[in-house]
Design goal:
single chain; 208 residues; alpha+beta; Jelly Rolls; 4-stranded antiparallel β-sheet; 12 strands; 13% helix; globular; binds 2-oxoglutaric acid; binds fe (ii) ion; nucleus
Length: 208
């Protein structure tokens, strides 16, 4: 993508278009039905070592406001944040400057446990008016929604997740229920978006 937000198209690798055919599967979710190309035309792959995350940020207006994030490797906890200077804001627990002159309420509005091989699709208000990020940590403490009593209590820093009922990985669920931390290892994410502006004159753009 150029600085002005124009995509210089290049063919996707086979694993995107043939097997496991990510594009067809993403199209089948219907999340991109209203996007200019009806499918993602741009994918960023990020690699995170254990202990690494990504600061709260917005993806911005150069993309159609739908993003599909596929997680591979280890789990992670994905937080959505709001700006603390929103009209609807109450006093934030801890505010931090976003670098855009706006401060961020450090208490997430929503936290999701992204399992290995899971897909999360962010759109609407979550794309246009919120930030998202992943904390730099080696282990995640998740609040158990199941009360076993005794010593299975979640630690004070445990995170409430909004997608417990959607989790597929029984081993992860059992660890959370027992109050055990989830240890991170390497995670790869594929962030799939549709860039509305596509160059039809690659030579000219490369000249800049
Ligand atoms: O790796 C992720 O899950 C998030 C990546 C992200 O937010 C981005 O590339 O804009
Ligand atoms: Fe992002």
């Amino acid at each position: 993508m150029t600085a002005k937000g124009t995509l210089c198209p290049a063919p996707f690798p086979n694993f995107v278009t043939q097997y496991p055919d990510l594009i067809a599967r993403l199209k089948a979710t219907e999340a991109f039905e209203g996007s200019p190309h009806g499918v993602p035309n741009h994918i960023i792959m990020n690699e995170y070592e254990a202990g690494q995350g990504i600061m709260p940020h917005e993806d911005g207006p150069k993309y159609h406001p739908v993003v599909a994030t596929l997680s591979l490797g280890t789990h992670c906890v994905f937080h959505y944040y709001r700006y603390s200077d929103d009209a609807s804001s109450t006093t934030p627990h801890g505010a931090e400057n976003s670098g855009t002159g706006r401060s961020i309420d450090r208490t997430p509005v929503l936290s999701l446990l992204l399992e290995p091989r899971s897909l999360v699709i962010s759109f609407g208000d979550m794309y246009t008016a919120h930030l998202h990020g992943i904390e730099d940590t080696f282990e995640d403490h998740i609040k158990s929604p199941v009360d076993l009593g005794g010593d299975s209590d979640s630690p004070a820093n445990a995170v409430h997740i909004g997608n417990w009922d959607l989790l597929q990985d029984q081993k992860l669920k059992e660890m959370i229920t027992r109050g055990e931390p989830l240890l991170r290892s390497t995670r790869w994410s594929l962030t799939c978006r549709d860039i509305p502006k596509v160059s039809t004159n690659l030579q000219r753009l490369r000249g800049f």
